[in-house]
Automatic annotation (TrEMBL):
This is Carbamate kinase. It comes from the Bacteria. The keyword Transferase applies. Residues 3-296 form the Aspartate/glutamate/uridylate kinase domain. GO terms for molecular function: carbamate kinase activity.
Amino acid sequence: MTKRIVIALGGNAILTKDASATAQQLALIKTAHQLAVLLTANSDWQIIITHGNGPQVGNLLLQQQRGSNSDLPAMPLYTVGAMTQGAIGFWLANALTQAFMERGLTNDVVALVTRTVVDGQDKAFQHPTKPIGPFYSPKMAKHLQALHPDWIILEDAGRGYRRMVASPQPLNIVEAPIIQSLVAQGVTLVAAGGGGIPVVHAGKSYAGIDAVIDKDYSAAKLAELVDADILLILTTVQNVYLNYQTPQQTKLTHISVAQAQQYLDAGHFAPGSMQPKVQAAMNFVRRTDKTAVITSLDNVTGYLQSGLGTIITN
């Protein structure tokens, strides 16, 4: 029986210190080979992939604004999100096709430009919390704040300063019927990249709205829609920790949703970092009674062979 896994890739799977297109494509080739291990080792597994785009959106916005003038105005945030979703989807589809061919796999790969419905009155629009773009030093953050007084620039989990934008909750995925059809045909699908292009209902159609949806929340929604057995959220660390980066740091291996809620309520997980990953995992488990896993991309094999990582169940 086929086991279906939705994989949410973190930014480290795409963007290295070198933000060039070539470097990002090389990073994705490495990522694709790591993911192909799943299918090589488990012929009855099917993977559906989503990914972040925060660094790419921020970098492209900066390029847009630096070259903006009355004849060539900068694109709005939701359009930049669509542009990066298309680019990363293209790179990842190419990388997966190559990795599959090298392993003798015949899986079809499709990257689908995906729209995610949000509520235009979501309170997130009054309290932006989603980091986009690169990390800045305090000096650079102050300089950018002066250049862009409408931006909100805050410290991000002790790693530097980043621009923050609204991150509303995903309500639905417009392409859900198409996604379900493709998945049923056994296609290896790349969908809802960057959380999906945020749209709101506009009469009988949809309109883009400036925001960046957290890819982990969209991954949970995607996993629910495709009836996934596992939601696998990949990040930079092998496990979720309590009291992270302190002398009291404690590794979490297998926890219940109730325990995860207690830790969230106690403020153990940083907003914009581990908090949405844990919350997204909990959302999926609560809605489906299935399993969510949070671990690192480099630990995919370790999770497969030994169950290493943080596993969340009811």
